[in-house]
Fold this protein.
Amino acid sequence: MTHNAPNLLPIGTQALSLRLVNSVDEFKSLQKNWDNLYDKCDKNSVFSSWDWVFTWWEVFKDQFERELFILCFYQGDMLVGIAPFQICKGRFPKSLLQGKTLQFIGNGEAYEDSIVSESQDFIVLPELEAEMVSLVSEYLVKHSHKWNFADFEFLLKDALILQCFDDDGKEYNKNNSQVARQKIEYGVRFSIPKMESYEEYQSKMGGRWRKMLGKKGRKLARDGEVRTESAETLDSIKPALIQLAEMNCYRWKEKTGSCIFDSSRFVEFHQKVMARLIPKNRAIIKTLYLDDNALASYYTFSDKGRIHYYQSGFYAKYANKYSPLFLLVCNEIGESIKNNQMFDFMFADDKNSYKKDQYCCEYESMYRLRWTSQPIRFSAYSSAKKIQNNVQHIKSKLAKLKNKN
């Protein structure tokens, strides 16, 4: 069913109208207009593109009880703003504590399937950002009976959604119902600061890492033919992902006892999203070879002058001798500097991650935002989250011990 609420806000000689999209067919039909709007909005990343969020919905729509709740704003016949929401009723006991949870499409999958759709936000023409914030806030208060809780992860400091229900939020409260909000720092995003050249980048590295880069690179070059191959065709997706998974699982199973590529939904999502993004030059897997031997691979997304480093791995037998992943990533950082692109290492739990020193990164805080019209849910949620984190920690330790034995 489509709900139309025309003339919400006058702008110039026209007005904004609202369309609620809550069916898959309507969602699919948005592709062309969504893409056109996305291309005009430089602040948004690939994780807010139609390709990414529609693929996520295809894979995860039947995981838990989910409902599309996409708010589309039009100026005349032109789509000018999108709030890509869903409403999810997760598994027990989360469903009891949170009730119906409002989230961006692209977040809220089960822990073992974690996709990490980073820096999502409203997609809106720059000149309409303030109006979008006001209208979304007003609409969510008016329809607060449809959701009990809201949870948005991996937000950057300039995310528009952070402006909803701020200290002046009462102006949206036309029905005398409060929306409480909770904004917390939630990890960091690492990135390479702007450099004039790869030589400048190397000069900024710590002495240990700069020395290693030169030493390992020379050793690799002496031992055979070095080349980098790219999976940038549809036929190359599946074998490249299989090889990356093998490398990644070596790395992470030794550390944590588990590997994200063990998730069938995670693999399905990336096979599908790469099929959509590769023809647009927005996704690629690169593998470093010595003669015919694959040493390391990394998987990235690229758009709007940004490289998003998503996943990587390496084979154990070459790790100490060549540090192949380090060499591969440094080379790619050099390419991004040459092409005047931002190299984004994405979300990390700890600001003291190895990325800070090893790759000469700077970092910025990321945020998690929660809303509710029933503040008692915050207390219940916080208590349950502590228990969940402790259980997950124990599970990881047990899995690690099992793999060692």
About this structure: The first strand starts at residue 3 and ends at 11. The radius of gyration is 23 Å.
